[in-house]
């Protein structure tokens, strides 16, 4: 079953970083004021897959003081600006979400990103040239 | 003309206003039976409120006579009680207190051991709160970030009962710890790999603080401690990722001197700092 990946259009349009990428609003589980560590997983002319990693908001008894909250994001160009087309939390100390071993893989030839959460189902997104967009496979 | 008889002033019998009732170490809640000096057959209304910090509960009880056994009403609660008693035209407000007694470490450990999936949790409580549930005034300890009781419950927000009853407080911590132990088990058993009880304990405590403790050694076909983390043994959970260029080849002493404050301790971590909070170091500090 195919469906477009516009799963969660929660980007704050108009609020962009210095690359022109829309900023993520990470929520209350993230340490207040923390800046994200951004990694580019794959990038094309009109799109980018990135991860943003934030320190978790520490809880009592040092729970998650060294933890991370990591978001996977797909950004696509719409006109001159990038828009967020999808976002998913892929690691979380507070929500107990974790990647499986090699759980985030980019296949450059197939233009396919595969995500495997530990204990969860595998999800793949593939770039469809005719639509110039990613779809869940 | 008959003489004017002044209305009888209401008072409690056997209990003085401001009286402190103590929760025992077990913990057993105190028996609180309240009786007024009014006629035994006169109906009474007992409006009560118990309050501590942001926690509050209140209610009202009607009794056919002048006595009310309030023990179950205040079960698992503590702090300041305000009681307004009405009997006919007579009414009076009293205050009472419920305070706690510190449980013993051995009782807490024994209670933790009655739970499943908690291997290592007693060490964690000992490390974090030294098994202390009440302060010297008999009130539950509260951390700077509103963590209550010996398990410093913050999120999910604890109930009034979880704050005052140390067993319920431990139950709240156990629930969170069991989630981490399940995650640790899932991680260590992926691809049908095997692990020891000790590895499960280290993995769980590491994850409590954040991140994985073990990495898979494909040559030895075994889980091993993440060798890329060097810990500052003078701290609880600070270390260095030795794969980072700025840390490579340096000793613990070199890195401590570079990153710690001259008088000890570390400043609040900023982006770009070379040291990290590490669950690996946290587990080592607690279990080694």
Structure write-up:
The complex is a heterodimer of chains A (137) and B (288). Chain A is mostly beta strands. Helix content of chain A is 0%, strand content 49%. Chain A has strands at 3-4, 37-43, 47-55, 68-78, 81-92, 99-107, 112-117, 122-128, 133-136. Chain A has a five-stranded antiparallel sheet, with no helix packed on it. In chain A, strand 7 (112-117) and strand 8 form a beta hairpin. Chain B is α+β, with helices and mostly antiparallel strands. Chain B has helices at 105-112, 121-129, 160-164, 166-188, 197-209, 252-259, 279-287, and strands spanning 19-23, 33-35, 44-52, 55-63, 67-69, 79-87, 90-100, 214-217, 222-225, 229-231, 238-241, 275-277. In chain B, strands 1-7-6-3-4 form a five-stranded mixed sheet, with no helix packed on it. In chain B, helix 4 (166-188) crosses helix 5 and helix 5 (197-209) packs across helix 7 (279-287). Chain B starts with 18 loop residues before the first strand and ends with a helix. Classes of the chains: A mainly beta (137), B alpha+beta (288). The interface between A and B is medium-sized, with 24 and 39 residues.
What is the H/E string of chain B? EEEEEEEHHHHHEEEEHEH
Number of strand elements of chain B: 12
Q: Which parts of chain A are unreliable, with pLDDT below 50 for 5 consecutive residues or more?
A: 1-14
What is the share of helical residues of chain A? under 10%
DSSP strand (E) fraction of chain A? over 45%
Give the class of chain B from helix and strand content and strand pairing.
alpha+beta
The chain-level mean pLDDT of chain B equals: 95
N-to-C span of chain A: 7 Å
Give unreliable regions of chain B as ranges.
none
Oligomeric nature of the chains: heterodimer
Q: Measured on Cα atoms, how large is the radius of gyration of chain A? A: 15 Å
Largest interface: A-B, 24 and 39 residues
Name the structural class of chain A: mainly beta
The pLDDT mean of chain A sits at: 86
Q: What is the topology, as strand order, of the major beta sheet of chain B?
A: 1-7-6-3-4
**Helical stretch tally of chain B:** 7
Overall body shape of chain A: flat
Order of strands in the sheet with the most strands of chain A?
Answer: 1-9-8-7-6
| Tally of helical runs of chain A | 0
> H/E element string of chain A?
EEEEEEEEE
């Amino acid at each position: 079953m195919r469906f477009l990946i516009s799963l969660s259009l929660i980007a704050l349009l108009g609020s962009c970083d210095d690359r022109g990428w829309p900023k993520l609003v990470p929520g209350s589980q993230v340490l207040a004021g923390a800046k994200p560590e951004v990694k580019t997983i794959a990038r094309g002319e009109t799109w980018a897959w990135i991860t943003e990693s934030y320190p978790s908001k520490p809880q009592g008894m040092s729970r998650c003081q060294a933890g991370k909250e990591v978001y996977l994001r797909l950004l696509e160009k719409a006109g001159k600006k990038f828009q967020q087309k999808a976002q998913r939390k892929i690691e979380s100390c507070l929500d107990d979400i974790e990647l499986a071993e090699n759980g985030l893989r980019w296949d450059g030839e197939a233009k396919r990103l595969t995500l495997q959460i530990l204990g969860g189902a595998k999800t793949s997104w593939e770039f469809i040239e005719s639509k110039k967009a990613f779809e869940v496979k | 003309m008959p003489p004017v008889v002044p209305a009888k002033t209401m008072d409690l019998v056997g209990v003085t206003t401001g009286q402190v009732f103590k929760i025992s170490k077990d913990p057993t809640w105190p028996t609180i039976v309240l009786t007024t000096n009014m006629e035994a057959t006169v109906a009474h209304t007992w409006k009560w409120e118990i309050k501590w910090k942001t926690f509050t509960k209140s209610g009202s009880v009607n009794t056919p006579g002048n006595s009310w056994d309030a023990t179950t009403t205040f079960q698992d609660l503590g702090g300041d009680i305000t009681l307004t008693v009405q009997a006919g035209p007579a009414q009076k407000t009293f205050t009472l207190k419920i305070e706690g007694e510190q449980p013993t470490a051995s009782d807490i450990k024994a209670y933790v051991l009655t739970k499943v999936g908690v291997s290592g949790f007693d060490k964690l409580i000992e490390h974090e709160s030294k098994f202390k549930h009440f302060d010297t005034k008999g009130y539950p300890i509260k951390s700077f970030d509103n963590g209550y009781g010996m398990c410093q419950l913050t999120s999910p927000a604890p109930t009034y009962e979880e704050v005052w009853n140390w067993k319920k407080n431990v139950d709240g911590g156990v629930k969170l710890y069991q989630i981490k132990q399940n995650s640790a088990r899932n991680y260590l058993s992926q691809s049908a790999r095997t692990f020891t009880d000790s590895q499960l304990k280290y993995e769980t405590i590491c994850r409590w603080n954040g991140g994985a403790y073990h990495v898979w050694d494909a040559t030895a076909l075994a889980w091993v401690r993440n060798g890329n983390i060097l810990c500052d043994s003078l701290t609880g959970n600070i270390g260095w990722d030795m794969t980072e260029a700025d840390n490579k080849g340096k000793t613990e002493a070199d890195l401590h001197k570079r990153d710690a404050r001259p008088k000890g301790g570390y400043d609040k971590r900023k982006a770009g700092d070379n040291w990290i909070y590490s669950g690996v170091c946290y587990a080592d500090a607690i279990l080694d």
